[in-house]
Amino acid sequence: MKSVVVIAAAVLFLAYYCNEPVPDGVTQPWVYAAMGIYFRTLGHVARLGENLGIARDAHIRRATISGVTNIARKFKSDHRTGLHVTDTTFDGVKVRIYEPAAVHPAGDRRTGLVYFHGGGWAQVAMDDLDELMAYIPKQLGNVLVAVDFRLAPEHQFPASFDDCLVATKFFLRHAEDYNVDPSRVGVGGDSAGGNLAAAVAISMTKEKEFPKLKVQALLYPALQAFDFNTASYKDYGHLSPLTTDLMISFWLWYLNDDLSSLELLKTNNHTTDALKKSQFAGYLNHNIVSTPLNKKDVEFPSIEKIETILDPRFAPLMANDADVKKLPPTYVMTCEYDVLRDEGVAYARRLEKLGVAVQHDHYKHGFHCCLIDINTIDVAREAMENYVSYLKKNL
């Protein structure tokens, strides 16, 4: 009798645990469910490991993802075929350079893309997205520089941003050494990498001694830590692979490595009434009739470094209009089932309103992290084909 009870309990537990919510609009529900279960399990394991004193939550996530990625890679063909791949450093920053092996016509320089990987500034190492980053130069025939920036929580803001900016400047300065036209170099990235690309693009508008960036090309970017009650956070914040709690954890690991204020951010109690009526709120919600507010006049709750949420190097959506107007032509990808959807949409609309050339591709069947497997996930393959097409036309 005991064995029957144990088996029944195990079956019920598995049925409950594997009952992953899948939005009706997702066209490959089994893929979404599998990813959701994987990332939900990863979260449970990471929190348990931290509670047991084994390692930090973020570090367990990173090690587990890298381990699973390495195992999966053994069952796939070599995704680097046709490329020369070199690991080196640019002014002390680790980078990986992907160059097409095919001979390029003499005197005809290639285009270049400096790419920043996603993973919440903490959860994913550069190696884990090697396949995605190799795909771009293979299809585009360009030179891609992937930046292995320092990760949170051991390295907090502005470490990741600083590494990305340093690497971008170095490549622009030495582009011709890689047979790249320095006037045809852009920046790109996915998720947290999209955040870094947008932040670098804004900073480069202030640089006079470097060629202007040709494009910024952002894939479901994280752009603001101001409002965690947007419609997309409300509608999809309970869904894996990117829940509201996890996204706020990423922001806090990057900001100050202190998750004790997570609930304050989740309820938007990290901003004041004055801020909620200011131009900063208007950058995200264009329906707000905002009152101009100087950053120096803002009083924040007692959360370490919380004023950084208005720094465009940390949250690019908070850049002022004068800087936004100077940005290069921009590509923004957003997905319907993604807590980051609304800020990507708001950014694209704002740039367009300020006169920046924008292409915004929104995927009604898309979800965050879909780009993790462009061979299996249909919407990911479509998105990357469109991404490469944009770069071919605009780099």
From TrEMBL:
Residues 1-19 form the signal peptide. It comes from the Eukaryota. GO terms for molecular function: carboxylic ester hydrolase activity. Residues 113-258, 308-371 form the Alpha/beta hydrolase fold-3 domain. Keywords: Hydrolase, Signal. GO terms for cellular component: membrane. The active site is at 191, 338, 368. Transmembrane segments: none annotated. Belongs to the 'GDXG' lipolytic enzyme family. This is Neutral cholesterol ester hydrolase 1-like isoform X1. It comes from Branchiostoma belcheri (Amphioxus).
